[in-house]
Amino acid sequence: MAKERAGRDSKRRIDDENFERVEFHDVTFAGARFDDVSFARAKLHNASFEGAALDDVSFGRVKLENATFEGATLEDVSFARAKLKNCNLSGLVIEDAAVDGLVINGVRIDRLLKRDGS
User: Fold this and answer.
1) Which of 58, 64, 75, 98 has its CB 3.0 to 4.6 Å from that of 38, i.e. a possible disulfide?
2) All domains of the chain, ordered by start, with CATH?
3) What is the Cα–Cα distance from 29 to 38, expressed in whole angstroms?
4) pTM of the model
């Protein structure tokens, strides 16, 4: 599995990229704009998406540990069967997202939303 590192670039635009099965450590995508990107089955440790704008992004079966999405905006994003551990989701805005199998703090989010009628 590839290991990648990326530097700080708050104006970065990432379009039509495939990071499936890639492993990232200590990477920042803070303030970046994503469109049509896949992180499916990737492993992200200490990753920052703080203030990022994500549109049409897949985090399917991803493993996120110590990641932050604080203040990020997610639209048309999939977290199907993703695993998040010690992640900061403060101020996160999610719209039109697939959350099948998403578990946060032991709670299945898809089931919670169904009970709520959302």
Assistant:
1) 58
2) 3-116 (2.160.20.80)
3) 14
4) 0.78
CB 62 within 8 A of CB 83: yes
Determine the Cα–Cα distance for residues 5 and 116; give it in Å rounded to an integer: 40
Average pLDDT of the segment spanning 20-39? 97
Do residues 6 and 26 make contact, with C-beta atoms less than 8 angstroms apart? no
CA 105 from chain centre, in angstroms, equals: 16
- Which residue pairs from 103-110 have beta carbons closer than 8 angstroms and sit at least 24 positions apart in sequence? none
Burial of 76 (0-12, 13-18, 19+ CB in 10 A): middle
pLDDT tens digits, 77-86: 988 888 889 9
DSSP state, residue 34: E
Q: Length of the chain, please?
A: 118
